[in-house]
């Protein structure tokens, strides 16, 4: 992930068909290191909501990923 982020060819905040960006997936999965890398880019919308109106923070909390929250 770090190598991909170092290139300018990566769209860090690209969303899938459900409105979920990489930050959403990293937070929901409890991948603390990836969340930190994405946040360090300053190119992610932290409070972006998916198609259900839920944010990455909500999913991290729902899944019990305290380190991500």
TrEMBL record:
Q: Which UniProt keywords apply?
A: ANK repeat, Repeat
Q: What Pfam family is a match, any one?
A: Ank_2
Query: What name appears for this protein in its UniProt entry?
Result: Ankyrin
Q: Species name for this entry?
A: Lentithecium fluviatile CBS 122367
């Amino acid at each position: 992930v770090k190598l991909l982020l170092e290139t300018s060819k990566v769209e860090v905040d690209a969303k899938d068909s459900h409105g979920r960006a990489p930050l959403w997936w990293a937070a929901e999965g409890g991948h603390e290191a990836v969340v930190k890398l994405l946040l360090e880019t300053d190119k992610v919308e932290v409070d972006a909501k998916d198609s259900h109106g839920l944010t990455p923070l909500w999913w991290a909390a729902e899944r019990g990923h305290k380190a991500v929250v």
